[in-house]
Amino acid sequence: MTDYSDLIQPDKGQDARTIHLVDKKSYDDWLKSRSARERAVLAAMRYKPDGYAHAILSGDDAESWSVVTAVANVDNLSAWCLAKIAPLLPEGRYRLDGRQPGKALFGWMSGQYRFDAYRSKEKAGSGPRVLLTADVGAIAPMVAEMRATALVRDLVNTPGADMGPAELEKVAERIAKAHGGKLTVTKGEALEQGYPMIHAVGRAAAKHHAPRLIEIHWGKADHPRVALIGKGISFDSGGLDIKPASGMRLMKKDMGGAAHVLALAQLVMESGLPVRLHCLVAAAENAISGDAFRPGDVLKSRKGLTVEIGNTDAEGRLVLGDALTKASEEEPELLVDFATLTGAARVALGPDLPALYANDDALADALLAGGIDRDDPLWRMPLWDGYADLLETDIADLGNAGSSSFAGSITAALFLKRFVPDGAAWAHFDTFAWRPSAKPGRSKGGAALGLRAAWAMLQARYDRRAKG
């Protein structure tokens, strides 16, 4: 397991290779300052300062080489501008020439992420590449964000057989114990009586994957109460409305919402953010057996609303409904939920952009700004009540599946809105939690999408230290 604190270190003048950053505007002037030998090498390579292009520049002896790499803007480094080069370089220490890496520290670490838990042998060449920075105060926060990101990736990448509700509980227990939080778990008969929709979704699973509501409480009583709610469907077969094999292949990632809120809770507690945290994970496996809930069943929710089941594959909103109700009973001023909720959001926005819904414009703006600041983009979608009639049914208060194939992500958000109390600011992330292909610093597989945007919002809203 990578110790990310080993990958960025304070710059105390120690020996290190130099990384020269260039962009299309600065390249010609930079090239003029280099030696004739270096210019000849770059000319022979037909080097162009296009995105992520890099070259090794030999020095006067075998040990004095340096690196040049192209970025979009040398005066405004993105989080990802060093992410591609980090895993390609030899092991050792590096420093940027004439500038500090800033948020590029994150991409440097992220580019060295590996998920090797199921490999019999570690890949060769996986030793640390260390980046030096004079901004010592940036190191701990960046490492914390990377650890949280890696946690999301690791949990989502782990197969459903090894990351069921019980395993999610163990992760929550470890996080709570490390930071003095209180863990509460509701399962069995207490779950059936108190959280009937979570129980119904998970009751068909094997005993060792029994459903549960996992809660972490942390923080001082006089601090503002914040609730983080995550969908923890450890594997989604679709239930009796079974998915095709192609749709089921990645459903180990359907607990991605839980992974995000556990990582976000870790950031909150590790940083000592002055909030009263309530983290809730609705954990279940949507399996198939003789006890599975059925299309046409009517479930009573914790809130008292009755829900007719139009599709057993629309189960995430059911478990979230009960969890949102529980969170709301403690009267938080802010609720944030994460869920891998709908394919419709992916049709609309693709894999990279989480769909953001919010009932508060200021909250939405803060989340969008956080996404820009952290290079973790979001896209706000309309929480439009005009589609609420699509959730109407003949025999219950509402249905879990819209009566139309249109606006699937919006109607799912509107379903959740029915379980959010009036007066509380609420944001809902319909995130993919997965990358179908790799990008620099963002490996194929489990992905933290929206995590750092949400963290930036929480810091801006509650961290008085950041405001001086």
From TrEMBL:
Transmembrane segments: none annotated. One of its GO terms (molecular function) is manganese ion binding. Coiled coil: none annotated. GO terms for biological process: proteolysis. One of its GO terms (cellular component) is cytoplasm. PANTHER family: LEUCINE AMINOPEPTIDASE-RELATED, PEPTIDASE B. Belongs to the peptidase M17 family. This is Leucyl aminopeptidase. The lineage of its organism: Bacteria, Pseudomonadati, Pseudomonadota, Alphaproteobacteria, Sphingomonadales.
